[in-house]
Amino acid sequence: MSADGTAEQSRARDGDAGARIALAVREGIMAGEYPPGARIRQENLAEQFGASRVPVREALRQLEYEGLVRVVANTGAWVSRLTLEECEEVYQMRERLEPLLLHYSAPALDAAAIAGLAQLAQRISSVGADTDAFLALDREFHMASYKGAHTAQLSDLIEKLWNTTAPYRRAYVSKWDADSRKIAHEEHHLMVAALRDGDSEDAERILAGHIRRTRRQLARHPDIFDVESSGR
Fold this sequence. Notes:
Elements: H1 3-30, E1 39-40, H2 42-49, H3 53-65, E2 69-72, E3 76-79, H4 84-105, H5 111-125, H6 131-145, H7 154-173, H8 178-196, H9 200-219
Antiparallel strand pairs: 1-3, 2-3
């Protein structure tokens, strides 16, 4: 094999390893295994995945682009963290931008897509106090509601905004009482009903209120943003 072929194979292996490492760290952050502010050590990831530093750096760059990690040149990488004020700003952005994305998406959601959303809403209503199940299904529900949109930047931006607030949503949802869970479930079902009726304007209104309520509730739990993370 030529030197060019060997180099190409090496790059492909690094790319595969980078994607695998990014997936594992992404899932770890979403699951709360890497809390906000936690140090992510490249040497530990390289050892854990049996990889060189090249795919580890690629993985961290990807996670930084997604808003999950902050990389400081020649220093290291940390899980992104927000202050309460920064989180409120992100939620205000979401409150205004996600209804716009739903506006783009709704006309392309056919009966099968809306039926899928209804099934997800029902599954969410059935998870009880299982925070992990709720967060996974809630994200799947909202992202599925945006599937009909074809945008140059908005979809990627909203996914990044979701990523940056994920650890704080986890802490907030874990504090929910039965009434809080019931309200969230009802809002999901109301969104589905509006979409089924072809009333995207009402669906957008419900979505904006859904996000606004979370923003206001997060502001009542400033302790969520005060936790200091040890390195790992």
